[in-house]
Design a protein that fits this description.
alpha+beta, 5-stranded antiparallel β-sheet, 5 strands, about 25% strand, flat
C-alpha cells in the first residue's frame, strides 16, 4: 500500500515538475554527466530509480543511504538534466505490490 501511494505521489510530482521545467531550466540545469557527478561528489547520492514519463522525459531519483538526502532530476529528450526537487529522509522500501484484484 505504501509503495502504491509512493508511486502515485511520485507520478503526480513528476507531472507538476514537467510543467515547471521550462522555468527551472535557467538556473538548475546542466549536462546529465555533470549533474550525476556533482550529486555523487557533493551529496554522496547515487541513482535509485529511473522512469520514463509520458512525454518521454527521463525522471531519476538519486539518494544517499548514509545521509538520507535525495534529488529528483528530469531530462527531456535531447535536452539537459534539470533538478526538479530535493529533500531529506529518503528510505528504501522493498515491499511487495498490493493485490489489486477484486476477486479476493
Amino acid at each position: 500500500m505504501r509503495r502504491t501511494l509512493f508511486l502515485m505521489s511520485f507520478g503526480i510530482g513528476a507531472m507538476m515538475l514537467a510543467a515547471q521545467q521550462s522555468h527551472a531550466q535557467g538556473s538548475s540545469c546542466a549536462e546529465h554527466s555533470t549533474v550525476v557527478e556533482r550529486l555523487a561528489e557533493r551529496y554522496g547520492e547515487i541513482r535509485q530509480t529511473i522512469d520514463l514519463a509520458r512525454d518521454n522525459s527521463v525522471v531519476e531519483v538519486f539518494a544517499s543511504m548514509d545521509t538520507g538526502s535525495w534529488t529528483i532530476t528530469v531530462t527531456r529528450p535531447g535536452g539537459q538534466t534539470c533538478l526538479a526537487a530535493a529533500g531529506q529522509a529518503y528510505q528504501y522500501l522493498n515491499e511487495p505490490l498490493a493485490n489489486l484484484d477484486n476477486d479476493t
